[in-house]
Amino acid sequence: QVQLVESGGGLVQAGDSLRLSCAASGLTFSNYRMAWFRQAPGKQRELVAARSYGGITNYSDSVKGRFTISRDNAKNTVYLQMNSLKPEDTAVYYCAARPTYETKYNYWGQGTQVTVSS
């Protein structure tokens, strides 16, 4: 079955960097668009960044210029490089996958906590 396993979260200070990783298995990676979402306490889950197999990306306005999504298609892994972190980036970050021909993300990781202190 499809599994998405995130790693790399932690507690950092404002201005620091973190890199999240998501290892995917049980799917044909090239057929999936991969994304990172996040959910802060009391808020709805929001899309942070997404990337197709071919390299087409989109980012939320709140992270543009600070976060970069990348994927290593040979390793079935997607990354989220987060720079210049702010306290408002504190959230649980989730990796997600959807077939390129669908609009809904139907596979999710268990989430990894990112906490940014001021």
List strands and helices in order, with pairings.
Layout: E1 3-7, E2 10-13, E3 18-25, E4 32-39, E5 46-51, E6 57-59, E7 67-72, E8 77-82, E9 91-99, E10 107-108, E11 112-117
Parallel strand pairs: 2-11
Antiparallel strand pairs: 1-3, 3-8, 4-5, 4-9, 5-6, 7-8, 9-10, 9-11
Q: Output the number of helix runs.
A: 0
Helix content: under 10%
Residues in β-strands, percent = over 45%
Radius of gyration: 13 Å
pLDDT averaged residue by residue? 96
Note the overall shape. globular
Number of distinct beta strands? 11
For the record, give the distance between the C-alpha atoms at the N and C termini, rounded to a whole number. 40 Å
How would you sum up the major sheet?
A: 7 strands, mixed
Descriptive overview:
The protein is an all-beta fold and 118 residues long. It has strands spanning 3-7, 10-13, 18-25, 32-39, 46-51, 57-59, 67-72, 77-82, 91-99, 107-108, 112-117. Strands 2, 4, 5, 6, 9, 10 and 11 form a 7-stranded mixed beta sheet that branches. It is globular, with a radius of gyration of 13 Å. The model has no long low-confidence stretch (mean pLDDT 96).
